[in-house]
Amino acid sequence: FFLMIRRPPRSTQSRSSAASDVYKRQVSTQSTWGELMSFQNIESKKEEFRKYLERAGALDKMTRVLVGLYEEPQPPSNAVEYIKKYLANPADLDSEQLRQEFQRAKEENILLKRRLEDIKREISSLKGEDV
C-alpha cells in the first residue's frame, strides 16, 4: 500500500505552499490596516493644522477676504490678485465700510457728471449769446 497525502488546492499556478498562501493573506490584511492607520494619521494632521490656522486667526481672515470677493458687485478679473491684495493688507478689511464708500463715490460721480453737463450747457448758451 502506498499512503497518499492530499495537498490543499493552490490559489495560484505558481509553486507555493498553503502556508505561503496564508502568509500572503496576512500581509494583505496588514497592508490594509496600515493604510487605515495612515489615513487616520493624515486626518489627525489635517485637524491639527486647521486648529493652528484657527488659533492664529488665519481662517477668520481668509473667510472675510473670500466673502468680500463673493460680495463684490463687479468681480475682479484676477481673483488671485484680489486675494493677495486683501490678505497682505495689514489693517483689517471692513467690506461693509468699503461698500458704503464705493456707493458714496458712485453717487458723487453721478452728481459731478450732471454738474459738468450743466456747465457745458451754460457755456454753450453764453457762446450763443455773444455771437
Q: What does the main sheet amount to?
A: none
The helix fraction, in percent, is over 70%
What low-confidence regions span 5 or more consecutive residues with pLDDT below 50? none
Global morphology:
rod-shaped
Number of helices: 4
> What is the H-and-E element order?
HHHH
Number of strands: 0
Class per helix and strand makeup: mainly alpha
Strand percentage lies at under 5%
- Calculate the mean pLDDT score and round it: 78
Distance between the termini: 141 Å
Q: Return Rg in Å.
A: 37 Å
Molecular structure report:
The chain is mainly alpha-helical and 131 residues long. Helix content is 76%, strand content 0%. The protein contains four helices and no strands. It has helices at residues 18-56, 58-71, 79-88, 95-130. It starts with 17 loop residues before the first helix and ends with a helix.
Short note summarizing the structure:
By secondary structure, the chain is an all-alpha fold. Helix content is 76%, strand content 0%.
List the helices and strands and how they pair.
Layout: H1 18-56, H2 58-71, H3 79-88, H4 95-130
Tags for this model:
single chain, 131 residues, mainly alpha, 76% helix, rod-shaped
